[in-house]
Design goal:
Order of helices and strands: HHHHHHEEHHE
Shape: extended
Largest sheet: 3 strands, antiparallel
Number of strands: 3
Strand order of the largest sheet: 2-1-3
Length: about 190
């Protein structure tokens, strides 16, 4: 006769299963609830069907409106942080110049320049992509991420297999080096 599952019989089973469904490490849950990590892993694979795991997940279940609000809030915080960093770099450059440290001043100014570039990208001052030799880096473009998100959202009702097939196809296309068209006269071109 097989031994009963110690996780199934645990008084905190619900909390343990929520942790397992949300990717909390078995080692961490084992320490917290006094269970062996291998028992927790076995419980996850044998006693928690995919439907239960999906229902117990608490991450990634935000609505589009909540995600838009979070994106706006985090974008402002990120911008504020980069502006603050740039100010510190300029202050560091001033201090380095005051003591005659030319190398330190150059390094601080270079970092301030990088911060300015990041600010420009966040504010979309550089446009959505840069074309180099008439080749667009599609994977890094915001439009590509929007397409991927919409595709996954539409495939979700069709089941896990359809989503996996789409993910494999996307990963394959992203790793392929597409043939470059004949270079135009300009080598580096800015596209808004």
């Amino acid at each position: 006769m097989a031994r009963p599952c110690s996780t199934c019989n645990h008084p905190d089973r619900a909390a343990i299963e929520i942790g397992l469904a949300n990717g909390v490490a078995c080692r961490v849950l084992g320490k917290r609830y006094g269970l062996d990590p291998s028992q927790l892993s076995r419980h996850r694979t044998k006693h928690m069907p995919d439907g239960l795991v999906a229902n117990l997940r608490v991450r990634g279940s935000r609505s589009d409106a909540e995600l838009a609000q979070l994106r706006e809030l985090e974008g402002k915080s990120l911008l504020d942080n980069i502006v603050w960093q740039r100010g510190r770099m300029y202050a560091n450059a001033d201090r380095a110049r005051a003591i005659g440290d030319d190398a330190g001043e150059r390094a601080a100014m270079a970092e301030a320049g990088k911060a300015t570039d990041r600010i420009g990208k966040l504010l979309d001052e550089y446009g959505s992509h840069v074309t180099i030799n008439n080749t667009i880096n599609l994977v890094a473009s915001p439009q590509w991420h929007a397409i991927r998100t919409a595709l996954v959202r539409e495939l979700r009702p069709l089941g896990h297999e359809a989503m996996q097939a789409a993910a494999r196809a996307i990963a394959y296309v992203e790793t392929q080096e597409l043939p470059s068209p004949v270079p135009a006269q300009r080598v580096l071109e800015h596209a808004a």
